[in-house]
Amino acid sequence: MHTLKTTADARTRRRRILALLSGGIALAVGGTMTLASWNDIEWVFAGGAAGDDPGVVTSEFVVYQNTQSPADGQGMTGWVERPDNPGDSLQFAPLSGTGSLQALTPGETFYAPVALKTSEDSIAGTVDLQGAVPAAGIAAVDAGGLLWDNLRVRVVLHDLDSSAAAPACNAAAFSSGTVIVGAGGATTLGTAGVPGQALAAGGERTHYYCFELSLPDNATTQTLQGRAVSPAWEFESTSD
Per-residue pLDDT for 68 more than 50? Predict the structure, then answer.
């Protein structure tokens, strides 16, 4: 009786051991499958075609001016930015070849050019010529504003390829191009230009403006001796 019980107990223990071993084998196989998985990582970035330059870059809108008397677009030097009043000085020359804007007499007319273009890396935009305001930092001697009120202005625009010859800034310039101030005749200093003049990107085209400034000869202007004003004009540019 004792022998039979011992044998039965041994068999029971053996079955339990085999069951545990089977479970261990199952766990071991499951662990081996997990360790055998493969990993792969992929990255992308917002970059340029070359793959090594920044992917997000803001555009530029830069306008240069030039107040020299231009010979042609390619030969002009002295392109500058002047974002604050009064800016660069317009170089007015008399219609007749004599006289000076610093000794203005009723009946005289003077002309001055200015050119605008975008920089090589600039996007396109539009330009609005604002009406004249007093130049900052320059004292006026004009009691009652009579000289200011009696001066007259016209402005013509020639929009040309950047390599094209600039037109001469004189009375003949107003027979072509677009008169953006005073199309119906010389007008007051505060008159703004025709808005929305397109300015090409990358300096591909140049705006050549010709300003005409005159003082009519009449009973009122004959009394305006010894007065002084300095009008300043703003070109307000907006990118497309």
Answer: yes
- 160 has pLDDT over 60: yes
3-state secondary structure of 99: coil
CA distance 140 to 228: 5
Which residues lie below 8 Å from residue 119, measured CB to CB, with a gap of 6+?
60, 62, 63, 64, 202, 203
Question: In the chain, what are the domain boundaries?
Answer: 1-42, 63-239
Q: In angstroms, rounded to a whole number, what is the distance separating the alpha carbons of residues 2 and 4?
A: 5
Residue 11: per-residue pLDDT? 56
CB-side neighbour CA atoms (13 Å) of 165: 4
Work out the burial of residue 180: count CB atoms within 10 Å of its CB; fewer than 13 is exposed, 13-18 middle, 19 or more buried.
buried
pTM over 0.85: no
